Amino acid sequence: MPRRREPRPAPALELKTTRLAGIQVILNSAEHAALDTHISTLFAATPDFFGGEPAVFECGRLPADAPSPDWGWLAQELKSRGLNPFAVQNASAEQAASARQAGLLVLNDVAPAPAIVAAEAAPAPEPEPVAEPASAAEPAAEPAAASATRIIDKPLRSGQRVYAAGGDIVVLAAVNPGAEVIADGSIHVYAPLKGKALAGARGDTSARIFTTHLEAELVSIAGVYRTFETAPDAAVAKKPAQIRLADTSQIVIEPL
Fold it and tell me: How far apart are alpha carbons 82 and 42 in whole angstroms?
C-alpha cells in the first residue's frame, strides 16, 4: 500500500507581484502656500473620507527645475485627512532625492496603478484632461477597448474591492458601504450601490456608472469624482440612475 504523502507546510513568507489601486495625488505646484490653500479647500467637506487609502505623489506636471515640495509637511497634511502617501513617481532627480530623505519611495520607472482620484494642487498652466496618462514622460495611450466583462453575483462587504481590468463590471448584488467597485470600462450595479464606484479607471472618459438604487458614498469617472456628504437629489436618491462625464470634467447624475 503506497505511503500517504504529508502536505508540505506553507512557507513563513512568500513574494508575489501585485497591482495596488490607490489615490494619485497630482502636483501642479510645489509652492507651499498654494498647496496649503488647495488642500484646505479640497478636503473641507470630507476631512476623513479616505480612511487611510494609500497614495502616490505624481510629479510629472512639475517643471524639472522646480524646487521640491516640503515632502514631510505635505505627507503629514494628507495623512491628517485620511490619505497615506508612501511614494513619488515621475520626479526629477532633485525631487526624488528630497523625497527619499523624507522617507518616501521613488517610482519614476514604474507604471502607476489605476488613478482613482486626481487631486490637483493648483490649476495647470493650460487646460488638460483630468485623467493622467500612465507615464508623464510618454504620450497618453488611447483607453483600451472594453474586451472583458467581470460579473459579481455576491454582495460586497465593507473593505472589499473588486477591479475589472480592461473591461466592464456587472454587479448583481449590493455594494455595501465601505466596499469599492473599480473598472477600466463601465460599471453596472443591478442592486443598491452604497459604497464607492470608480469607472474609467485608466482614463476612459466615455465610461458610465449605472445602478438601480443610487445611495453611493463616492462615484468617479476617469479620475473625476464626487462624494455624497448629503443624499443625492430627490430625482435620483435611492432610485435608478446613471453617472457620466460632461466635457470630460463634470460629473452628471441622471435618472434612468
Answer: 13
